[in-house]
Amino acid sequence: MKAGKEQGETILTLEDVTFGYGDRAVLDAVSLVFRPGEFVAVVGPNGCGKSTLLKAMAGLIAPGRGSVMLAGQRVLAFPRKKLAQRMAMLAQSNEAPAGMVVADLVGMSRFVHEGWLSRGTPDDQAHIDAAMRTMAVADLADRRVGELSGGQLQRCRMAMALAQDADILLLDEPTNHLDLKHQYALLEMAREQAARGRAVIAVLHDLTHASLYADRVILMDGGRVVADGSAADVLTCTNIADVYGITTVARTFGRAIVHLPESAGE
Amino acid sequence: MMRQYLTLRIGPAIHFPIRLRPALMMLALIILLGIGTLYSLRLGSTDLSMSDVIRWLMSWHDADPETSAIMILRWPRIIVAILAGAMIATSGYLLQVVARNGLADPGLLGISQGGMAAVVLGVAVFGLSPAWLAWAGLAGGFATAFFVMALAYRLSSSTGLILVGLAVGIVLSAAIEIIMVRGGILQFARWLAWSHGSLTSVSVGGAGMVAIWAAVLLPMALIASGQMMPLLLGHEQAAGIGASPRRLSLFLTMIAAALAAPIVAVVGPIAFLGLIAGHIARALVGERPAEVMPVTMLCGALILLIADTAGRTLFLPVIVPAGILVSIAGVLTFLIAARLSPSSR
Amino acid sequence: MKAGLGLALATVVLCLLCALHLAAGARFSSPALVVDALFNHDPRNYQHVVVIKQRLTRLVVAGYAGAVLSVSGLLFQKILRNDLVSPSTLGINSGAVAFVILGIYIFELNGAALFWPALIGGVAAVAVTFLAAGLVSRGGRDPLSLILGGAMTATLFSSATTFAISLDPDRFGNLMGWLVGDIGNFDYQPLAWLWPVGLAGIGLAFILCRQIDLLTLGTEQAAMLGADPRLVRAGTLALAIPLAISAVCVVGPIGFVGLVAPHITRLLIGETGRVALAFCALCGAVIVITADIAARTLLAPQLLQVGTVMALCGGIAFLVIVVTTLRRRVA
Predict the structure, then answer these.
(1) In chain B, which among 193-232 make CB contacts under 8 A with chain C?
(2) A85-94, A201-210, C321-330: range with highest mean pLDDT
(3) Chain C contacts of B157, Cβ < 8 Å?
(4) Structural domain of residue A214, as residue ranges?
(5) Interface pTM (ipTM) of the complex?
(6) C-alpha A194: how far from its chain's center?
(7) Which chains touch B (3 or more CB pairs under 8 A)?
(8) Distance between CA B303 and CA B307 in Å, rounded?
(9) What is the third-level CATH fold of C3-330?
(10) What is the reported pTM?
């Protein structure tokens, strides 16, 4: 791992990032700092700008104001291949041609490490195998994408992101389509990746998941960061009421914070 | 949007609200069509004066022989242009409603090609007389329409119908092409011109035949348009509010094929006219079939009349087949219209 | 099927077909005669001349056209992520034909020089198709809209072609075969100039194969995996259009190889990777050579046009593809 692990070193910095479609601001002066070895959950109501935030970090959109810096350099100034060596993303959209074989699909993630004449090296294969084992899709290698269930495809795509072997993992609703077992397996895996020194930044819908696994939770609303800190500090009933517009009672089970509607408390 | 009604009420049995905007639109289109007709009677390789045209119209029989001689060449063609335009446009609109896809058109669903293939076969292989060609075209159009509907029946998505129609049309065009390249280049060129739709060879007999078909089918389409509203909701929901969508769809498809067939026999297929006229009509008056239908007819008639008149006057001495002008001008206007109306679809 | 096996099989089939193509014709030549004509050529022997001058040139032309058209089709299908596009369904063929006719009519061009108007026509057709599709779909991603845009474009340009021809039919008399797609005896002349286009195009497609594959995952995903989507898409278009045009210049608007060959490839060995690309090229060559054999022998001694044979068979194949893809999507 290239990134250092000592506390305080930053890998990704957002400064005053503002982005909008027309005159509707989707991101409004967002400033954030991410460190290696951190599992950060981004939460917030629908349309609060979570996915757009990830896209801005990935250099997929150009912010109208402000900048995203990766290791001291603007993300947008990176050539795509250089950027992809540092950063992998699991996008929300599930697009892959139905006729493609899973092994080929996952293998595509190694493009960033290929030269014009070197490919399919033992190192490549080792990463692909490891990623497919981690996501429990090794036995799907010969299947075609069109034959997979939504959950299987989601795990294959996660395996792609892993095999890319980047310092930063951006995950947009990674638990989509997954059943209970695979949801928790994926979150465990994400935490493990963080423990190995990667920065894992995940958009999550489930606040319980966020509180249970993330080192740090960012709560967004209307394109702005409302709160940023540990789950216990961020996921308070006051914050939830402000952002989601629903009065809840919070129960804790160890690390996990569960917000229930007020009526369910009685 | 402000809605203004004018209610036609006769006794207790008849209560018929008429919306003002479509009514005005129709009136405007009728006036335009009238002006267009007068102009296309006047223009040609020999231009007449407007007074000559009007005198000829007023006194049908005792006009001066020179004018009559020219007119006998022009009026059948103009009648056919108007009726064929209206019929193809109606056919297209009916198919758009049945397919629940604003992009349907007899040319796109293969119906025109089916009629064409039958006509070509009839002429080139069996040597049919012109009187029978319309029937051959009708049979071909019907057969293709049913084939396409049957193939697309299970596909449920309305996109499927159009893709299947396109594919069937391509196969049929290839078959037509095989027959077309039999003769020399001159015949090939003539076939090519006809395969885009041309009114050059329209005779009084052809005009009469088209007029008979139009007299039967256009009123039927107008009457049917009153019942078409539920189809816009999709089959399940239409059945839910008490319509019988399958029977109605079948009936409408038959009318659509019947509308296209005689035109294919006399004029040749005119691609995209149905698509364009339907689109313009809906941009003008909205979505209600009973209002869109007559406006579509008028639009189609106007477009084909203008295209034919332009084709035979603008590039003299060359006469451009109307079908070519329709597809060039039509596709361009369609694209512009699509650009200008971002909301309506 | 394993990719390598598929490739070997396709090569064998292609070789057999080549042999059959050389032997078959209005008069069947014995294999011994064909071998003799190839390796022991006697210019005074009429049958040798037929085998080399007529059949071999036809074979080369057919194989070339099939290979470049199907590679072009595969490239289009990959970067547009749409199984129904091909040079013909995008309107490229009609655009090229229209501009070639105009080039002949106005500038009196001929031979390989017609490549340039054809190229302009092809690019114009693609531009019009994209524009029309964008307007029809209003930003949506309906696979139909591109096909419909292509159909509109094709109608537009073929109307223009018809108009130009009707101005002076006699002048285009000897072009009639080309207009519907044919492999005649005079056709190898432009090929002598144009084959580098095909070779370079296919070669570059091989080199860029990986990037193009990435694009099949969608723009954002491709970007995240390290490809520059806009660059790759533009580059691939710049490959695929001249490839198709170089075939159209030689044989006229032969449709549907570009549509069908990629589908067969996908069905048999999948669409990812260089082997698939090579398989697709071989497959296209096989299809056109078969069509040419059929065109020459089915109604012998009368010749059919390869273009019409292809359009007939290809249209039916298109129908089957449409019905099966849509069924699968519903299921």
Answers:
(1) 193, 195-196
(2) A201-210
(3) 326, 329-330
(4) 12-265
(5) 0.78
(6) 11
(7) C
(8) 6
(9) ABC transporter involved in vitamin B12 uptake, BtuC (1.10.3470)
(10) 0.80
